[in-house]
Structures are given as C-alpha cells and as structure tokens.
Amino acid sequence: MFRKSIYFAALAALASNSPFVSAHELGAHVHGVASLQIAVDANTLTLDFSGPLDNLLGFEHVPRNARQQAAVKNMADNLNKADKFFVPSADAQCMLQSVKLDSLVLESKAVQDKKEKSRQHEEERGHADFDGEFVFVCKQIAKLHDLDVKLFDTYPNLHQIKVEVATQKKQSSATLTPAQRRVSW
Amino acid sequence: MKYLLSLAVRSAWNRKLTLGLTLMSIALSVALLLGVERVRQDAQDSFAQSVSGTDLVIGARTSPVQLMLYAVFHIGDATNNIHWQTYKDIAANPLVAWTIPVSMGDSHRGFPVVGTTTDYFEHFHYGESEPLTFGSGKPFAGLFDAVIGAEVADHLGYRVGDKITLSHGMGDIGLTEHADKPFTVSGILARTGTPVDRTVHVSLEAIEAIHLDWQGGAKIPGFSIPAQYASKFDLTPKEVTAILVGLKNRAGVFKMQRDVNEYHTEPLLAVLPGVALDQLWQVVSVAERALLAVSGMVVVVGLCGLIAVILASLNERRRELAILRSVGARPMDVFLLLSAEGLFITVSGILIGMALLTALTATFAPIIQSHYGLMIAPRFVSYDELGLLGIVMGVSLLASLAPGYGAYRLSLADGLTPRI
Q1: B223 and B88 together in one domain
Q2: Residue A109 has what pLDDT?
Q3: Is B398 exposed, middle or buried (0-12, 13-18, 19+ CB in 10 A)?
Q4: Are both B73 and B176 inside the same structural domain?
Q5: Are residues B313 and B397 in the same domain?
Q6: Cβ neighbours of A23 in B, within 8 Å
Q7: Which structural domain, as residue segments, surrounds residue B335?
Q8: Nearest by CB to A21, which of B253, B261, B264?
Q9: How confident is the model at residue A21 (pLDDT cuts 50, 70, 90)?
Q10: Which residues does residue B102 pair with via DSSP β-bridges, in sequence order?
Q11: Are residues B345 and B292 part of one domain?
C-alpha cells in the first residue's frame, strides 16, 4: 500500500512542473467526523464539506445492489439541494448558486472503469471520502453572521463537524454536534 | 428596622478584629477569582491582537499550534526550516498578495532576533489591522542594520545609532557571540503590545552574513571574515523558518492551504492563524477550568470562614441577643440581624476585592507587559465577571441563613439564665 502511494506521488510529480500538484496525500479518515470550511468573500459564501462517505451512506465502495444505488442517488439529490442543509443568516439573502460533488460513488460507470487504478487505490485503503463544494451568492453579505447546519437528522452516522471559518475580517474555528447546530462568526 | 440596622453595625464594630480578618479573606479570595478570570481573558485578547491581516502561516510540517506559536509569538522551536526555493514558489503563487519570510534562531540578550525583509514593516499588522510604525529611525537598509521593538529599546536603553551584538542561539548567558559583526540600530518601532515589542529585526542577508564563517554550529577557529567583506559573498538566504502570507482574495485561503499542504518537494504545513489560536484555547481551556475551579474553591473556603466566625460569635452574643429579645425584638428580627451581617460582609468583601485587584493590575501591568508581553488592562468589572460575582453573592446569601436560623432558635430564657 505504501509502495503504491509512493508510486502515485512520483507519477503526479512527473506529470507536471508545478510544485503545487497534489501528491495524493492520505488525509485523516475518522468515521462520524466531517469537516466544513466556510469562506466568506465580497459577495459569495463558499462551503467546502468533506469527510468519510460512511457518514452519509453507511458504506464506502461502489454501490453493489439496487438499494445501495438508491442510497447514492438519494444522497446526491439531497446535496444538490444544499440550501436545505446549510442555511445562512436569513438577513443576508443568500441564494445557492452552484454545487460541485466529488466522490468515487458519484461517478458514472464508464468513469469508474477508467479510474480503475485510483478506485483500486481507494478501495485497497478500505475507505473512501466525499467532497462537496457549495457556493451561495448573497445580496447583503455584511449581514451574514451565522450558518445553520441541518445534516444531523438526515445522516445519523454523522456525529461531529469540525468547522473553520475565514471571512474578510477574521478567522475562527468551531465544532458542531447534534446539540450545537449553528456556527456564528 | 432602622434601630436594628444601627444596632447591627455597632455590634459588628464591637467585634471588628475577627470580622475584619474574615472580610480580608473574602476580599482576597474574590480578587483571586476575578484575577484568574481576567488574566485568562486578557491573555486570549492579547494573543488575538498579535497578528491581524495574515491569512496563512506556513512552515515545516508540525502541529498547527506549534507553528503558530513559534512563527508569531517566538515561543518554542521550529521542527525544521524550509528551503528558499519553496519560499520563492509560494511567493510566486497567483493567489498570494504578499509574503513575509522569517528566519529565527539567534538572540540578543534574551530577546529573539528575526531575520526578515522590509516587507515586514509594510505588511505585518496587529490589533484591528494597525500597521507597524516607527517611533524613531527607519527600516534596515544596510547589511548590518537592525530594527528593534519598543520593549527591547526601553529595557536595554538603546537609541538609534547604538551598536549591538547578536548571540547564536536563545538564552541569556553562555552563548557564542557574533562579536565580529556588530549591528547598528537603524530604527525603533512604536509600542504595539505584541511580541514585536520584544523582537530584534534584521535582514535575511544579515543572518547569512553573520554565519558565513561558521560551520557545524560553531565558529571555525582561526578563520574569520571581517564585516566589511561580508557583502562580497553570495548572501541569498538558503532557508527560512516560516512564512507569513497575505492573499489577494481572503476567501481563497482554504484553497491555498490545500495547495501548500500538498506541496510535493517538501512537507509543509499552512495554518490559519485565527483557527490555530482557537485550537490552542481549546487545549488550554482544560487548565483554565481547573484554575477557575481552584479559585472558586478558595472563595468557598472564605465564605465558610465567615459563617464559622458568625456561628462562633453566637455563643458570645447569647446575652446580647437575649436582651434584644427581652426589649421587644421578634425572633424574625434577630434572624435578619444575623443574616444581614453575613451578607454585608460578603458585599464589602467583594467591593474591597475588586478595588484590590484594580490597584494590583494597575501597579503590576507594566511589569507583566515587559516580562511576558501580556497586556492586562486595569478595569473595574466586566459582564462575565458580574456573573461570577452574582454566584458568590448567591452562595453567601444561602450560607448567611445558617447563623440567622441559629439565632432564631435561641430561646429567650437560654440567654438570660446565667450559667454556673
């Protein structure tokens, strides 16, 4: 496994001259815990939500039966309506503008086959992650001071979200749990 | 009622020594409780004020808190340095607006020396986005120029134009001196109340220059490059300890952080200073709560002392209370008399404690500031502290009921019958 990841690192390094190309880092993977990065810009609110797939699906592999397929589809449908789960301060008048979901299970069969190697890589690791980027455009960004996260009821496997916030003025961090569902800044 | 109050005061005055001592113990315990809370609050504020406008701090891979502590507060050590090429790659990243490289490891009479560029004086901000200003002099221009913080200047009595010698390593004594290459103070920064005040700033090239004739951490015996020839050498820095980064678009900070963390030629760590500080407070909060609990217990001990003194005085005051009863005081009046005494002492204790703390912080704030770089603002009481004081009052009110009840129960005959 280690040899393989070194191989991938070397490949990534060869593929480009830029030193900022990902070397396929093995990030932390703790079931039940997800991370949410909140960036507040001149008029946009960008959320980056990521964590183990298990939090949202209960399994971490390519869907193998109809039930698992339905679960994946359900997750994707849900997260495409991210404004149901991430609710910014009402006064800020934010509208969900774009959603970008990235996970092994969300790719089409063809792409999954194409990415055989990296799929094997993720499956060998026995773990797979989920990554979603949600962009909101806000009319009154000055009034944006908090965000309600309503994921805990729908996804009982999710127990904790580690939140990092970066705004024009300050940076802070917080931890959300089923008992504390709002992050303020 | 009025008579009762004047009686209570006179009776208390009669026992001024014991009550006075109890009053002192309550005042001290309240001062301790508020002091702990205040130092905690001010330490957090003071840390938060120390860096402003810096989006990322980048260094060798280590714990985020440690990186933050050594890069900004000069506390602890770096695990590794990072290559100069890495610095240039990061500075060239299109997301980056400005960078401040810092290089550490030398000191001057216990004050840390930071090698950096003049960008430091332009881009480093503290407090609510305030830039650094010069109290006198100007940024370093020559190779052996140094800019010192206000505290360094005050403590060591330096003025612009003075010569100073840097030492290799940190500490006060037993260090090798860079005596052959003295620096000239070119500027003194205005006071900021942050670690900048305790720092000596020189150029990155100067750090290279003073180590030209060094090898393996010591001066090469019998070999020395005089200061005037140092500039003939290639003084391009080879490494830096950390980089402070400002971004063009501050919301791009997470993308930049990922890019840096996945930088493949060298293991790097990028931290958001605000987030790292929050993490630090989460770690420290356990100790803080313990301290608060201990000082809370000291208050409880003080209140117990108060109750013990009043209860003990019940015995001496048997006769006094009985006479009161015999001239018409109801049991309820005696109850109020005793309870009011306890409450009155607690209230006075709290007031004296707050005054004491204000006086103490006003006296010692400058000393704490210069030794620990911690700003303690003398103020009377804050909203959070009012909550604590409310709890102290509540507990003392409950506790004062005990002697009151004791007096209430004392029968008239009990006090008037002389015992043999």
Answers
A1: yes
A2: 59
A3: exposed
A4: yes
A5: yes
A6: 262, 264
A7: 2-47+280-416
A8: B264
A9: very low
A10: B242
A11: yes
Using a cut of 0.90, tell me whether the model's pTM lies above it.
no
Q: Which of A110, A104, A98 is nearest to A75 (CA)?
A: A104
Examine the fold and report which residue of B271, B299, B322 is the final residue of a domain before the chain moves on: B271
- Write phi, then psi, for B288 (nearest 5 degrees): -60, -45
Q: Are residues B39 and B95 in the same domain?
A: no
- Which residue of A164, A168, A183 is the best one to mutate when testing the B interface, meaning the one whose CB has the most B CBs within 10 A? A164
CB contact under 8 A, A19 and B265: yes
* Cβ atoms within 10 Å, residue B285: 12
Which of A19, A39, A172 is closest, CB to CB, to B254? A39
Count of alpha carbons within 13 Å of A163, Cβ hemisphere only?
24
Q: Is the pLDDT of residue B10 over 60?
A: yes
Structural domain count, chain B? 2
What pLDDT is recorded for position B15?
Answer: 86
Q: B317 near B289, Cβ under 8 Å?
A: no
If asked whether residues B318 and B381 sit together in one domain, one would say yes
pLDDT tens digits for A77-95? Answer: 888 888 889 999 999 899 9
Flag if B264 and A37 touch (Cβ within 8 Å).
no
Nearest CA in chain A to B281: A173
Nearest chain A residue to B263, by CA: A20
A146 contact B CB<8A: no
Q: What is the pLDDT of residues B258-316, one digit of tens each?
A: 889 888 888 999 999 988 988 888 888 888 899 989 999 999 998 898 888 888 888 78
Q: Among B190, B162, B276, B176, which Cα is nearest to B221's?
A: B176
Find chain B residues with C-beta within 8 A of A41's C-beta.
249-251
Chain A residues in contact with B264 (beta carbon < 8 A): 9, 12-13, 19, 21-23
Contact list, B280 vs chain A (CB under 8 Å)? none
Task: List, for residues B389-415, the tens digit of each pLDDT value.
Answer: 898 889 888 888 888 887 777 766 666
**Could you tell me what percent of chain A has a pLDDT over 70?**
75
Residue at token pair 């990415």: A115
Name the residue among B55, B89, B275 with its Cβ closest to that of A19: B89
Structure tokens at B361: 């912080």
Q: Which residue of B has its CA nearest to A172?
A: B275
Q: Is residue B132 located within the same domain as residue B253?
A: yes
HSE of B355, CA atoms in CB hemisphere, 13 A: 9
From chain B, pick out residues whose CB is under 8 angstroms from the CB of A137.
Answer: none
- Does A133 contact chain B (CB < 8 Å)? no
